[in-house]
C-alpha cells in the first residue's frame, strides 16, 4: 500500500511538472511567433546645454547634478558690475535738456498770456474811445445840420419872396436868380451834412464791434497786436505739447534703459525645460564668459530607447509597433513606447560612401530600432537622471 501511495504521489508530481513544462514550451513558442526580443537596449534622451547669457561672476547656485528641475526654475545668478551705463546717461542728459526747454517755453507762454490780457484791455479802451469820438462828432454834425437846415429854410423864404416881388415888378430877374442860387446852396449843404452824419453813425457802429471803415490799422493798434500775439500763443502751445510728448517718451526710454542695465548687471539663468541636471560645472564665485556652457540638462519629456535586434527579425517589425521596456537594475519598472525608426546596415555601411564594407559571413548582423517613450512614463527618482544610460530588455509585440 505504501508503494502504491508513493507511486501515486510521484505520478501526480510528474503530471504537474509535465503540464508546467508543456505550458512553458507553449509560451515560448507563442512569444517566438508574436513578439521580438532585443539583443541590447539603452535609454537615450535630449541633452540641452546650459549657457550663460552674460559675462560676470556667479553669485548663487540653486541646483546640482541630479537635481530634478521644473521649467523656468532659477538655476544660477550672475552679476556683472562692468555693464555700460552710457545709454542711461545719454537719455538722462536729453531728458534734462528737454525739461529745460519746456520750462523756458512755458515761461514764454505765460508772458504772452499776460501780454494778451493787456492788449485785450487796451482794445476795449480803444473801442470805447473810438465810439466816444464818433459820438462827439455826430453831435457836432447834428448841430451843424440844424444850422444848415435853418439857413436852408431862410433861403427858401427869401426865394419865395423874390419870386412874388419879381412877379410884381419889384425885383429884377437877377435878384431872383441870386435868391434861387442861395436856396440851392443851402439845400446842398444840408444834404452834405446829412450824408456825413450817416457815415459817422456807420463808423460808430463799426467801432462798437471792433471794426474800422475810415482808417488803416497799424502795428500799434491793439487789435493787430492781439492777432499777432494769438498766433504766437498758438505756436508756443504746439511747441509745449511736442516737448511734453518728447519728455514722456524720454522718460519711458530712461526707465527701459535702467531696466536693461539692471538686467545685464544681474542675470539669472533659468531651466529651459523640465528635467534633470545631467552635469553642472559651475561654482559660486566663478568668472564666466558670455555664451559659456556651464552644464547640461536632460529633457525627460523627450526620451527614447535605442534597441538592437537581429536583422532577420526585420520582417516582423513596423513603425508604430508598441514596445515594452524592462530596465535592468530597476525592479518592477516597465516603460512603454512605440517604434519610430528602423535603421539597418550597422557595421557594414557608411552613409555617403559608394563602397559598402565587406564583413565575414558568420558575423552577427543587427538592426537599430528607436522606440519613443510615452510622455507619461516614469521620470525617475532623484539622481537617476530619467534612467538615461540604463540598459534593459525590449519586447516588440507583433
Automatic annotation (TrEMBL):
Database matches in InterPro entries: MacA_alpha-hairpin_sf, UPF0194_transport
Statement: the UniProt record of this protein carries the keyword Mitochondrion: no
Coiled coil regions in record: 95-129, 171-198, 226-267
Main subcellular localisation: other
Transmembrane segments: 7-26
N-terminal signal peptide: none
Keyword set, alphabetical order: Coiled coil, Membrane, Transmembrane, Transmembrane helix
Protein name: HlyD family efflux transporter periplasmic adaptor subunit
Organism of origin: Pseudanabaena yagii GIHE-NHR1
Amino acid at each position: 500500500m505504501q508503494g502504491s501511495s508513493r507511486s501515486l504521489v510521484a505520478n501526480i508530481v510528474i503530471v504537474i511538472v509535465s503540464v508546467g513544462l508543456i505550458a512553458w514550451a507553449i509560451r515560448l513558442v507563442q512569444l517566438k511567433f508574436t513578439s521580438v526580443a532585443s539583443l541590447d537596449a539603452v535609454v537615450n534622451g535630449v541633452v540641452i546645454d546650459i549657457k550663460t547669457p552674460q559675462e560676470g561672476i556667479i553669485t548663487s547656485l540653486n541646483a546640482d547634478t541630479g537635481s530634478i528641475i521644473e521649467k523656468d526654475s532659477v538655476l544660477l545668478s550672475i552679476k556683472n558690475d562692468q555693464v555700460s551705463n552710457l545709454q542711461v546717461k545719454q537719455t538722462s542728459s536729453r531728458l534734462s535738456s528737454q525739461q529745460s526747454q519746456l520750462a523756458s517755453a512755458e515761461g514764454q507762454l505765460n508772458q504772452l498770456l499776460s501780454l494778451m490780457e493787456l492788449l485785450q484791455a487796451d482794445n476795449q479802451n480803444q473801442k470805447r474811445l473810438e465810439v466816444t469820438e464818433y459820438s462827439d462828432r455826430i453831435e457836432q454834425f447834428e448841430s451843424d445840420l440844424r444850422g444848415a437846415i435853418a439857413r436852408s429854410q431862410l433861403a427858401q423864404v427869401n426865394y419865395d419872396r423874390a419870386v412874388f416881388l419879381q412877379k410884381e415888378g419889384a425885383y429884377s430877374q437877377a435878384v431872383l436868380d441870386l435868391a434861387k442860387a442861395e436856396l440851392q446852396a443851402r439845400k446842398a449843404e444840408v444834404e452834405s451834412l446829412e450824408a456825413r452824419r450817416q457815415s459817422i453813425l456807420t463808423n460808430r457802429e463799426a467801432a462798437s464791434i471792433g471794426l474800422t471803415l475810415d482808417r488803416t490799422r497799424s502795428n500799434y493798434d491793439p487789435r493787430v497786436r492781439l492777432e499777432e500775439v494769438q498766433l504766437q500763443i498758438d505756436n508756443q502751445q504746439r511747441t509745449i505739447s511736442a516737448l511734453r510728448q518728447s519728455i514722456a517718451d524720454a522718460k519711458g526710454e530712461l526707465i527701459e534703459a535702467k531696466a536693461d542695465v539692471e538686467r545685464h548687471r544681474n542675470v539669472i539663468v533659468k531651466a529651459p525645460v523640465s528635467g534633470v541636471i545631467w552635469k553642472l560645472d559651475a561654482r559660486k564665485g566663478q568668472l564666466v564668459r558670455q555664451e559659456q556652457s556651464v552644464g547640461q540638462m536632460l529633457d525627460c519629456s523627450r526620451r527614447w530607447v535605442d534597441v538592437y535586434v537581429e536583422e532577420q527579425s526585420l520582417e516582423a517589425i513596423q513603425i508604430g509597433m508598441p514596445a515594452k521596456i524592462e530596465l535592468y537594475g530597476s525592479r518592477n519598472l516597465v516603460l512603454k513606447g512605440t517604434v519610430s525608426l528602423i535603421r539597418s546596415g550597422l557595421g557594414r555601411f557608411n552613409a555617403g560612401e559608394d563602397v559598402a564594407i565587406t564583413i565575414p559571413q558568420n558575423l552577427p548582423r543587427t538592426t537599430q530600432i528607436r522606440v519613443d517613450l510615452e510622455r507619461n512614463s516614469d521620470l525617475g527618482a532623484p539622481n537617476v537622471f530619467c534612467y538615461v544610460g540604463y540598459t534593459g530588455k525590449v519586447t516588440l509585440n507583433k
